[in-house]
From TrEMBL:
Gene3D superfamilies: MFS general substrate transporter like domains (1.20.1250.20). The keyword Magnesium does not apply. The chain crosses the membrane at residues 37-61, 81-98, 105-128, 148-171, 192-214, 220-240, 340-361, 381-405, 417-436, 456-475, 496-520, 540-558. This is Uncharacterized protein.
């Protein structure tokens, strides 16, 4: 690649383009597990606050706001989709302008303000008389003002929580420098992502088991105030680490950088790339992208290499970023293209994951949910998923990683791509288990009661399997997209996991709509009717399982073809980020 041996004119181009940016301070003076633990505690408390609102929102909409079941379900779907789409906004602002720390601080403050507004709105305008909305006592009709303030508050919560999630994960990974020559922090990023997902589930566990109970018996305002208090403590813990975090500079808007690569390549479509040494790269330890390491040239998508070819026009005319790009800039665009097929293959898994909040609950509601005289709510079965995540995370970190590491020679144990594949397989087994459970439930159905004599606890295997699959799939996703994303778009990489969940929700809704359109023709009730005893939800589960098999085959093909990013360490020492 053209670097130190390029003509004088190219050095001038480099000087005009960007100076060599220094790292903020020596990395080893900051970061490590102490500030990382503050971020993990922040994640647990923020998730506790968020799910204190989200887990029972459909009941709040029907019991307090007065919506019908269909409208309430639609409102929750839109709100949930907004949460995960906001992750892309937060990632963009973090990578482009604000940096990780400021992005987390601003969006978490929005989360706190949203919860304050929700608590006040519920207390002053919605939950009247006090204690209403418990399924027995009805609330007074809500005013237009109260309803508008309610929607404003919950969408502030969606913006605040969704906006900071991927950036918080990336900030946590920044606390560990795996390029440390003494290897003191080797493998710590993988451990952090596992604990990060465990912290999310710990927060969810307490909100699902404690706040759900109090809100269900009419203490809605109390539940919201508790959520608000948890978010305030989370924000204070976040600020406590301000002088101990490692900070990474924002690299500027990546959209023009990627666009410049495609435009420059199109302008030079007649140019031939015969030798890698023809390609332009700046001198120095860092790339022209602020705060980013250089990315080594790869052989894929060679047509984009034309953007980095030095022509006579580049030597004679003024600098033009839309005609000449660096190798690192070209490789940044290539990395995004390489990650997309892997990301698309994770969407079907997210369809599996979303069934816990929809069809699993409907299935459980049509089963025997009593232990003696005690009623176990169908929605609370997700506790088994959360416990499964926590136990499997512990087993994976303490048993599987050391064992597989010794056998394979890889200290990380399984690679991220291998873990995601295993997660897909376990998710497939969860759908089969759910389908088999539904077959047995239908055999024991009680038509006149629209239910079944089969115990709801026969659902435990499918919840446990989904929880186990999350440890491999979602933790693997977080680590994979963070490691494979170039330095300038790390938060974008972390946001791809949440974007996958968002699209999984939409694809699941589309599948249900398509299946019902086909199976409910004529006098038929379809696979998923109002009375599940008249339908065949088992066939829908098996359909998802079949789609997962095809997705798994495609995923294996894409994973085998995937080429990992290689970055330059210490100026000339290449480092391959394993996937």
């Amino acid at each position: 690649m053209a670097s130190n041996n390029v003509p004088l004119e190219i050095s001038i181009i480099h000087d005009e383009r960007a100076p060599i940016h220094q790292q903020p301070k020596p990395k080893r003076k900051r970061g490590g597990w102490a500030p990382a633990f503050l971020l993990l505690a922040n994640q647990a408390l923020a998730t506790f606050a968020f799910f204190g609102v989200g887990v029972n929102m459909v009941l709040f909409l029907t019991r307090v706001i007065g919506q019908g079941n269909a409208d309430a379900a639609n409102s929750v779907s839109k709100w949930t989709g907004t949460v995960y789409l906001c992750s892309l906004l937060g990632a963009f602002l973090s990578d482009s302008y604000w940096g990780r720390y400021l992005t987390c601080a601003i969006f978490q403050f929005i989360l706190v303000m949203g919860l304050v507004l929700l608590s006040l709105t519920s207390w002053l305008f919605l939950v009247i008389p006090s204690g209403c909305g418990d399924g027995v006592n009805h609330c007074f009709p809500t005013s237009t003002k109260g309803t508008m303030m309610f929607y404003l508050s919950i969408y502030m919560v969606a913006l605040g929580y969704g906006g900071h999630q991927p950036t918080l994960a990336t900030l946590g990974s920044d606390q560990f420098d795996e390029s440390d020559p003494k290897h003191k922090e080797k493998g710590t990023k993988g451990a952090f992502f596992a604990y990060f997902y465990a912290a999310l589930n710990i927060g969810s566990l307490f909100s699902n088991s404690i706040l759900v109970y109090y809100e269900d018996i009419g203490h809605w305002t109390t539940g919201f105030w508790v959520s608000m208090s948890a978010s305030v403590v989370a924000l204070l813990l976040f600020f406590c680490g301000s002088f101990h975090y490692r900070y990474v500079q924002a690299s500027g808007n990546p959209l023009p950088r990627v666009g410049q690569v495609f435009v420059a390549a199109c302008r030079k479509w007649k140019v031939r790339v015969d030798d890698e040494k023809q390609l332009y790269e700046v001198d120095g330890l860092e790339s022209a992208i602020k705060g980013s390491r250089k990315i080594l040239h790869s052989e894929e998508f060679k047509c984009l290499d034309k953007a980095a070819v030095i022509t006579e026009n580049d030597l004679m005319g003024p600098q033009n970023d839309w005609r000449l790009c660096t190798v690192t800039q070209v490789e940044e665009a290539k990395c995004v293209i390489r990650m997309l097929p892997i990301w698309l293959c994770t969407i079907i898994y997210s369809v599996i994951f979303t069934q816990m909040a929809s069809l699993f609950v409907e299935q459980g509601a049509a089963m025997n949910s009593y232990i003696g005289k005690f009623h176990f709510p169908a929605a609370s079965m997700s506790i088994f998923d959360i416990v499964s995540v926590l136990i499997c995370t512990l087993i994976y970190r303490t048993v599987l990683v050391p064992l597989v590491g010794r056998l394979s020679g890889n200290p990380k144990g399984l690679t991220e791509l291998q873990r995601m594949g295993i997660g897909l397989i376990i998710g497939l087994l969860a759908m089969i288990a759910a389908g088999v459970t539904e077959v047995e439930r239908l055999k024991r159905s009680i038509p006149e009661e629209h239910t079944s004599s089969m115990s709801i606890f026969w659902q435990v295997p499918q919840y446990v399997l989904v929880g186990a699959s999350e440890v491999f799939m979602y933790v693997g996703q977080l680590e994979f997209f963070n490691s494979q994303a170039p330095d300038g778009i790390k938060s974008f990489g972390s946001s791809l996991c949440m974007a996958s969940i968002s699209l999984g929700n939409y694809v699941s809704s589309l599948l249900v709509h398509m299946v019902m359109s086909i199976t409910a023709r004529g006098d038929k009730v379809g696979w998923i009717p109002e009375d599940l005893n008249d339908g065949h939800m088992d066939r829908f589960y098996f359909l998802i399982a079949i789609l997962t098999v095809f997705d798994l085959v495609l995923y294996v093909y894409c994973a085998r073809k995937y080429k990992c990013i290689s970055v330059e360490e210490n100026g000339n020492e290449p480092k391959k980020e394993e996937g």
